[in-house]
Amino acid sequence: MLSDDSPKTRNLKYLLLGLCLYxxxxxxxxxxxxxxxxxxxxxTTTSTRDSGLLDQLLPAFTRNTPCDLSVIAxxxxxxxxxxxxxxxxxxxxxxxxxxxxxxxxKHGQRHASxxxxxxxxxGQAADPAQIKHLxxxxxxxxxxxxxxRFVSRGDDSGTHKRELQLWDDPAxxxxxxxxxTGQGMGNTLIIANELQAYTLxxxxxxxxxxxxxxxxxxxxxxxxxxxxxxxxxVEPSKNSKINGDLxxxxxxxxxxxxxxxxIREYQLHNATLFEPIxxxxxxxNSP
Length: 287
Fold this sequence. Notes:
alpha/beta; 12 strands
C-alpha cells in the first residue's frame, strides 16, 4: 500500500488535479453564457413594434448577447427626446432631419440607416379628392382644396414630421377637414377608417392593420415617400445609467448579415415590409 506522502502518491494526486483542471478549462460555462450582461433600453418608433419585426430581431440579438431588454415604443420625436435626456441607450427612429440635428447637438454617438420602406397615402376606394397616382405633395393640396377629411397623427412622430414636410409648412394645416389624433399609427388608421378620411401611414403598419379597415393605398412608391429607419446610440457621457457597450453591440447587430436577412425575409400577408440598407454609418462623436 502506498503511503499518503510517498512520491508515487503525490504524482498521482498531481496527475488527477491536472486532468480536472484541463477538463474544466475545456468545458463551456453555460451558466456564464446565459447570464445577462446588463440591461438595454431601446426607444423605438411604433411601426417597428407594430409590424412585428422587433419580435424577430430581438431574440436573434439576445441569443448571442444575453441581456435584459426594455423596449419603449413611441413616436420618433418622443424617442429622440428620451435620448436627449439620457432615458434610453439606443434609438430606432425615422426622421432624417431631426436625426441629423440630434447628432449635430452631440446627443448621439453613432448613427446609421439600416432599413427602409415607403409611406403611403390611404383613403376610400371612391377617392373623392381624386388623388390616385398624384405626387404626394400635390395629393395633399387636392385634399385640402376639395375640403376632404384628412386625419393626422399630430404627435411629432416620424410620420407626422414627414406629413408636415409634404404640406411644405411647419405648422399643421387649418382647413376644416383636418383632424389630429395625437395617437399612434394603428389607432390613427382606425380613426381615419371610421371617418372615411385620408391619412399618411407607413406601409408596415398599413399591412398589419389592413384586415381591420376599408382604406386602400392611393399614393405610394414615390421618392418623397421613402421612409428610412436609423439606429442611434445615445452619448454615454450623459449619465451613468447609459449602457454604451450594449448599445454599440445592438448598433452593430442591426447592420449584420443576420439582421439584414431577417429584415429582408420578414413578411406580412405575403408582402415584404422592409428593405435592408448597409454601409450608411456616420462617424461617431466620441473624442
